[in-house]
Design a protein that fits this description.
alpha/beta; D-Maltodextrin-Binding Protein, domain 2; 10 strands; 41% helix; 18% strand; globular
């Protein structure tokens, strides 16, 4: 028995040296998330054990609004968040430095993420028919930004009477009841209102912009350990994206179970797909960041100017 014990010790030592899961505990990350369709990739990577396989212990903290999520980031209670570039730029300016490490949705000709819907009894068939009509948005949010980008692309800037209605359920109710002419909505809410008679007359498929991202809090000093953690996090997202693309029906069921897709919206909802190289491992370009920043400065949301790209978007120099 003593001989066996002595022979076992070198084997155990070797395992500690070559197996990170034995040598050290998994890196823990608390990620704040909003109830958007493409946040599925975070939940699925956790449930499928993909994060754990890459040495990451990820806890997903749900939030119902970007304002609450931003406050949590500034308070230092989160290690990262799912959101959009507007939130990332605002939080960096307000003392919560972070870097974008992945893109979860990017407008393409093959899928819609946002659209302009008109009330069920509306006679409007084109954007020209809505000129001067009311449109509900959440001011100073990604919805406001996308609407302005769409109108600019169509040569119809400032053609709608924008109404700031913060609560999304109220926006939906007002649109479906005919108390407002139109609303700019994200998926799967677009599919939900379509199923109840509303019509989508314009969507984001002509845009070419990153729409939702994941950002991680920057440490006081960027080091090899932080970069390695990001690489493993990105590798997990890439692996999970392949799983979702390969079995969309199964993950559509998961979306319903997680409350990311309502039963009413499900029949009309075209399941999201992650498209390389844009998602999930694509990263915003300097031009993308400038597009957002220019809009934010125009709307007085950004005061200190745009930080260098390397300060807000992960640069893998390995």
């Amino acid at each position: 028995m003593p001989i066996f014990r002595h022979a076992l010790l070198p084997l155990l030592l070797l395992c500690f040296l070559i197996c990170p899961s034995f040598a050290q505990a998994a890196d823990s990350l608390k990620i704040g998330s909003l109830p958007a369709a493409d946040s599925l990739i975070l939940h699925a990577a956790k449930e499928d054990g993909v994060f754990a396989a890459h040495g990451l212990n990820v806890e997903i903290i749900p939030f119902q609004s970007a304002l609450e999520l931003g406050a949590a980031m500034r308070a230092g209670s989160l290690d990262g968040h799912f959101g959009d570039i507007i939130n990332v730029l605002m939080q960096n300016e307000n003392g919560a430095p972070q870097v974008i490490v992945a893109t979860t949705s990017h407008s393409t000709p093959h899928a819609r993420f946002f659209g302009l819907a008109v009330r069920p009894d509306s006679p409007a068939k084109t954007l020209d028919d809505l000129k001067g009509k009311t449109c509900s948005i959440g001011r100073a949010t990604i919805v406001d930004f996308v609407l302005d980008s769409l109108l600019e692309t169509e040569g119809a800037a400032d053609s709608l009477d924008k109404r700031d209605i913060r609560q999304i359920p109220v926006r939906l109710q007002m649109l479906l009841s005919g108390r407002i002419d139109s609303a700019l909505l994200p998926e799967p809410l677009l599919s939900l209102v379509e199923g109840q008679g509303a019509r989508v007359i314009l969507d984001d498929r002509k845009l070419s912009l990153p729409l939702a991202v994941i950002a991680l809090k920057k440490p006081e000093k960027n080091d090899d350990a932080f970069a390695d953690r990001i690489r493993r996090f990105r590798a997990a997202l890439g692996e999970e994206a392949e799983k979702i693309n390969a079995d969309p029906d199964s993950y559509k069921n998961m979306m319903q179970r997680l409350g990311l897709l309502s039963d009413k919206a499900a029949p009309n909802y075209a399941m999201l797909r992650f498209e390389e190289p844009l998602t999930p491992l694509g990263l915003p370009s300097e031009e993308d960041i400038r597009h957002y920043a220019d809009w934010m400065q125009k709307n007085r949301l950004l005061k200190k100017g745009v930080p260098p790209l390397a300060d807000i978007v992960f640069q893998d120099v390995k």
